Amino acid sequence: MKKIIKLGSLFFIILTSNITFAADTHVVKMLNNGELGSMVFEPGFIKINSGDSITFEMTDAGHNAVTVAGPEGSIPFDTKYKPSVTVKFDVNGLYLYKCAPHAMMAMAGIIQVSDASNKAEMAKEVEKFEATVMMPNVKTRMSDLMNSNVK
Ligand SMILES: [Cu+2]
């Protein structure tokens, strides 16, 4: 009888922990003007849990969100200028993505899925990306986001 009770409480713990870890859907807006300046994703940095999704909303027309780099084993995404696209993130680590037509204006963003295990590799990717940014005033937008958000 005791065994059954123990098994029952274990089952209860598993059930409730599943509720705690339910996946969320977050929103990232593509904007002509935002808090960080012109041609931005908002928020530019977002930390989510593994299994969560992000809906990329083309608030202003003419933007996309395309993977620049992600952790090993992750699948690249591309919103293809659709008004709203939801992408699920199952592989932990840092992702760098850009808006293809406005990348030279530093229209890019960073996603952290649970941990930052690929931080060293991502720092190199950010450096490579920033070498292609043509506007001096936003040249360090991505490395600034990394430095202030990724521990
Ligand atoms: Cu854009």
Task: Please give a structural write-up.
Strand 1 (25-34) and strand 2 (37-42) form a beta hairpin. The protein has three helices and eight strands. It has a single domain, classed as Cupredoxins -  blue copper proteins (Immunoglobulin-like, Sandwich). With 151 residues, it is of the alpha/beta class. The mean pLDDT is 91. It has helices spanning 2-20, 119-130, 141-149, and strands spanning 25-34, 37-42, 45-48, 53-57, 66-69, 84-88, 93-98, 108-113. The chain is globular and about 65 Å long. Helix 2 (119-130) packs antiparallel against helix 3.
Short summary:
Helix content is 26%, strand content 30%.
Describe the secondary structure blueprint for this structure:
Layout: H1 2-20, E1 25-34, E2 37-42, E3 45-48, E4 53-57, E5 66-69, E6 84-88, E7 93-98, E8 108-113, H2 119-130, H3 141-149
Parallel strand pairs: 1-4, 3-8
Antiparallel strand pairs: 1-2, 4-6, 5-7, 7-8
Helix pairs in contact: 2-3
Bound molecules: copper (II) ion.
